[in-house]
Structure formats: structure tokens, C-alpha cells
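#structure-requests
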Amino acid sequence: MLKRAQLESVQAFMDHPAQSGLPLHARIQRAVRQ
């Protein structure tokens, strides 16, 4: 589950980097917390 959440976060970042506003590691940490 955890790895899948990280992969989805990375994929979302790669799909919409301009809409992110957060660094990649922050998005991964955020996904892990959820």
C-alpha cells in the first residue's frame, strides 16, 4: 500500500509538475502520511 501511494504521488507529479507547487519528496511524504 505504502509503495503504491508513493508511486501514485510520483506519477501525479510527473503528469502535472506545474500544478504541484511542492517538491517531489514533499509529495511523497504527504502521500505516506495519508
